[in-house]
């Protein structure tokens, strides 16, 4: 155990990782998403992609206890269930791609996904139609692939909901439930593959402490009456992630 703790404290950029996960928790508590879009680009500077994915899902699971009770009451659970079912089927494909592709390629993929999400949202793109069950399954499947390959479990779902007409409270609740389910699915797949070691678990526990605290603070700050503030905060998170995540910096 002392050796594992020594290894955790020797993690490159640990202070930056803790500060980043703390900010991510604040945003996650307020908006219902944002952890991966903040943490993954920064973590990718210091950690291998496989470690980033493992730490991301484990810290996500740790924070869900603070968010799920309220989200469960407010979410469209049947809709989220379809999304999660489809994602469960495609996560293994994403994890296979994670192993297949080199680290720089994965980082560029992260930058493209987050950047595209940001551009579509800030340009005012909106989807006014109705998504049927097949559409929900396709959206969930895409989120599963991207989440397994990069740890970015949120962008596909965030784009789907923020580009729609749902109220902030419903967007937040649905997103929280879906991301919680996807974290569990990815973690289970990593366990089956033998890709979760003590080092990853210890690092995730270390980062989970500031993450849980700031998630609670963020949840306390959320007020469904402030719709504009909610969307502005969401867009700001994505924009910062685009800039910080470009592989040009490191």
UniProtKB/TrEMBL annotation:
Highest taxon of source: Bacteria
Bilayer topology: Multi-pass membrane protein
Keywords, in A-Z order: Cell membrane, Membrane, Transmembrane, Transmembrane helix, Transport
Listed transmembrane segments: 6-26, 38-62, 82-101, 108-128, 134-163, 175-192, 198-222, 229-249
Compartments, as annotated in UniProt: Cell membrane
CC annotations in GO: plasma membrane
InterPro entries: TM_pro_TauE-like (IPR002781), TSUP (IPR052017)
Residues of the signal peptide: none
Family the UniProt entry places it in: Belongs to the 4-toluene sulfonate uptake permease (TSUP) (TC 2.A.102) family.
Protein name: Probable membrane transporter protein
Species the sequence originates in: Roseovarius aestuarii
Phylogenetic lineage: Bacteria, Pseudomonadati, Pseudomonadota, Alphaproteobacteria, Rhodobacterales
